[in-house]
Amino acid sequence: MLGLASGLMALRYLPVLPPAGCLFLLSAVGLALLFFRTYPFGLFLFGLVWACVQGQSALNDRLSPSLDGRTLWVEGRVIGLPQRTGTAQRFELRDATSRHAELPRTLRLSWHGGPPLNSGERWRLAVKLKKPHGLLNPQGFDYEAWLLAQRIGGTGSVKEGQRLAPAAYAWRDGLRQRLLQVDAHGRAPWLAALVMGDGSGLSRDDWALLQATGTVHLLVISGQHIGLFGGLLYGLVALLARYGLWPRTWPWLPWACGLAFAGALGYGLLAGFEVPVQRACVMLGLVLLWRLRFRHVGMWLPFLLALNAVLIAQPLASLMPGFWLSFMAVAVLIFTFSGRLGAWRWWAAWTRPQGLIALGLFPVIWALGLPVSVTGPVANLVAVPWISLLVLPSALLGTLLLPVPWLGEALLWLSGGLLDALIRGLALLAGTFLPWMPAQVTTGVWCLSAVGVLILLLPAGLLPRPLGWPLVLLAVFAPQERIPHGQVEVWQLDVGQGLAMVLRTRHHTLLYDAGPKVREVDQGERVVVPVLRALGVSELDVMLISHADSDHAGGALAVQRAMAIKKVISGDVPGLALQLQAQPCVSGEWWEWDGVSFSLWQWADAQTGNQKSCVLLVQASDERLLLTGDIDALAERAFLKSPLAMPVHWLQSPHHGSRSSSSKVFLNALKPEHVLISRGHGNSFGHPHPQVLARYNALGMNVLDSAEQGAVRFRLGTRGMARSLRQPSRFWRQGG
Fold it and tell me: What region holds the Metallo-beta-lactamase domain (predicted)?
């Protein structure tokens, strides 16, 4: 089973998928290994082949590149639970068809200002289609991998539409609407998340609270509650039988096992039957089956069977972070609790599991690039029993009794009150200690820290446990790469239609623009701050906001809230938020950090916001980088008359490659070797313009486009090449 699971999980690390002929050869070799009873290696190959076949099937169901950016009329059925945020809705359309093209089976769509949608309805929609694409940054969420794992072949935005048929068999959506209308002390969306695994009603602040306290799993990952609910049903039947209250003609053990599994399966279907729920149902079913046959079964066998069952049914599940967190949490508990001699006292049995899970999952969270909740173990000491023993039973019973006048609503009112008390306590805890983002380290340092965790989880006496703590603390005091004197590390972050660049010398950090903010999506909070923390940056020496447009300044407040900033400079101070307290950009201002020079320029006769952009020239050794913001052709001509007008090696494409910028005279004078374009995939502005790209190509410039290559990193002062985050490649990013 380990060999089979390893083959199935190896899919995550493949740069490309093997061709059909190679898969056939691997199958033949696997069959031969099984014939010679080399079962682990044979099953490894069969698992790998099966995962590759399913991966290729998902890739084949992606939107054709020829349809990227086109608007078509599409018909299909709404599935799942549509997510509503203000006037915006996100939903999935299954069995999508069009008269003019072949479409993927499932599309993920957004609709701003449209009428309410319900699961099960059929719609005819005018959709601007987009190929699966996501931002790619250090320690960032891989949206493309998630889309592939969900077998979503394309995304898009709805322009208009009409309902063709009402909902049919949409009981989950109807139940969600009923739950959201219940008076539950303002916590009805939380009850919907707990009961149905639907977190679409939670606000951004709600998610931040759960993440800060390490309690996200209590609301959306319902695997733990599946086992608890099944155990409660089993224990109830056993208790009734013990006191003679169970019918004598009904054998109590088969009924206990059957009701426990049926209840767990029903709750799993109610919660959406995601990967953690599948794992819990399979493991619970195996334990109950063995119990029914009066045989003792160790926990590793159900764990491995559940792992393989989930991966065989969903080979792409290994691309999702939730898969690893769910199974690793169970593995840590089995490893630390099974085979131990003696019993723990009640307080140890209550406190140790949370500490062990936090310690055991730390290397996984670190590898996945997720923030670590400092207060998680303490918060879960209270939250887990509070949710499991008080809130969940009353919430499920209240949901079941909703058809009964006042009784179901009364129980949900009680659940909401209990939830409200817990949330208020978590908010106090979250406000005291912020989540910690471990810095990026080499694979060797991560492995040493993981070994330290393993030593601490081993039974006492096998290895001296004090040896583990220094290795674990490598995560806190990890040796960081030292930037040599006279060089600057430059990151162009992938923030969509906007700009954010991080420049780090040996002892200083500058942020040039902070990314966009569009409605509730703040890339300063989602991208810039996590990347800065992953790079080990705790404060900024300078945040330079080129001008006040939201695609450059939108994320500035989020950055300011997250870390200390010594100085803020902007080319358009009146247009910025007052909280930023920025200083104006002054042409001719110059400073030096660690042997690297920084010079500012702004057009004195600027009229528009774009023309007011504060331009920054960075020189390390004899290599130069010019950051231009959104200056247009008129500002470019004015810049050529300044003392900073000299040949550069790296150029940030003015105004994202707009036709109004990157004039021939500007490019001919600067003669850049590389150009950096920061823009959103399929943006409505048409950036970069084909004429501008033609100019770049005619001059032999190396174009680095964030929409195609993700975040880009290079070292100024070394004359080296840039590295894209799409290197090393992964099979789901092909053609990106």
Answer: 497-681
